[in-house]
Amino acid sequence: MLSHVAADIAAEALQRAGHPRSDRDRGTPWGLFPAAGHDSWIAVTVRDDADRRALRWVLGIPGEGEVDPDAVRAWTARHEATEAMEKLQAAGVPAGAVLHADELPSWAYYGQRRAFREELHPHGDVPFVMENVQIHCDHVADPPLRQAPLIGEQTAEIAAELLGLEPTQIAALHERGVLETTVGSTQGAPVIS
């Protein structure tokens, strides 16, 4: 969300440093507007006169010139964010529904790009959604993905590879309680021995 106001933040910082702002007369609605539904928003960007004319047409406002942001706000508040986005985009106005994190995996854009995947944790009953690899290539296989190790799951391997310990030394450290390894589970929680 910060990226939507980054230009304004930078412009205000430059203005405080003595540089004049040249975008004050933009006269176009630009920003986030409320949509129908709880905490539902749409980003609208009007870049030029063509976008402004298209926005006026979608909103049903005759004439030319500036569009009052309150008129945009009133219109978007009567429409679901995706519906408003589709109507504005169809008219040529850059617009996008603001998505909540739990909506991202079901959004067609991310589905087509395989941006999310489901994983089942050994101690869980249902799969959970997590990010997939960020870049897919038709000619290169995706890297192997697996769950993160459980607490203590790799204790023996780490002790052998990184510390150079022999199996008998590792066993002795386990017996003394210096090292712990995951050996099973009780109601979803790893049991450390």
From TrEMBL:
Protein known as: CoA transferase
A GO molecular function held by the record: catalytic activity
Family annotation (InterPro entries): CoA-Trfase_fam_III, CoA-Trfase_III_dom3_sf, CoA-Trfase_III_dom_1_sf
Top-rank taxon, per record: Bacteria
